[in-house]
UniProtKB/TrEMBL annotation:
<dbReference type="GO" id="GO:0016787">
    <property type="term" value="F:hydrolase activity"/>
</dbReference>
<dbReference type="InterPro" id="IPR011146">
    <property type="entry name" value="HIT-like"/>
</dbReference>
<dbReference type="InterPro" id="IPR036265">
    <property type="entry name" value="HIT-like_sf"/>
</dbReference>
<feature type="domain" description="HIT">
    <location>
        <begin position="17"/>
        <end position="123"/>
    </location>
</feature>
<protein>
    <submittedName>
        <fullName>Diadenosine tetraphosphate hydrolase</fullName>
    </submittedName>
</protein>
<keyword id="KW-0378">Hydrolase</keyword>
Length: 165
């Protein structure tokens, strides 16, 4: 078991955070943004950044090459669909994608939007950790949390609307 700090400051103990979230035993802030046959998308529970989405596999696998062909296709489609929604609904111009296989929980990709303020922390990969910590430590105010929740709602609506005729 490991302790995880949520964006609201509370701590939870889980074996695998991804399993807890995709399996429904832990409800991420704002709920499920989108679900496919093999994947599950939610706002990152640790960092209050608008449109920061985690796309996690439902199956407990660790490495990219463990995905079946069906899962690979579903993954790429889901990733693209969320990316498009981030652009259309939140005006997000660029996104950084991260996935490291040596985490203690299972396959999940971070989709980290780039906002103007983030460039104060540099460009590219070295800026990401400081950006996330800045958000967690300095952006937990009521106003920003409300904006994050509004963004989740907009994305959820966009990603779950029926096909247009
Ligand atoms: Zn898992």
């Amino acid at each position: 078991m490991r302790k995880i700090t949520l964006s609201n400051g509370s701590k939870v103990e889980v074996d695998c955070l991804s399993c807890a979230i995709t399996g429904g035993s832990m409800k991420p802030d704002g709920g499920v943004v989108m679900e496919t046959e093999f994947f599950h998308a939610h706002q990152d529970v640790a960092y209050p950044i608008k449109g920061l989405i985690i796309l996690a596999s439902k199956r407990h696998v660790t490495c990219l090459d463990e995905l079946t062909e069906e899962e690979q296709l579903d993954y790429m489609k889901a990733l693209s669909k969320i990316r498009k929604a981030q652009r259309n609904v939140l005006g997000i111009e660029y996104v950084y994608y991260f996935y490291n296989e040596d985490t203690t929980h299972h396959f999940h990709t971070w989709m980290v939007p780039r906002y103007q303020w983030m460039y104060d922390f540099g460009r590219s990969v070295e800026s990401v950790r400081p950006v996330l910590l800045h958000a967690r430590n300095n952006m937990n105010d009521k106003e920003n949390i409300q904006e994050v929740m509004n963004a989740i709602n907009s994305l959820t609506k966009e990603l779950n609307k029926g096909p247009s005729l």
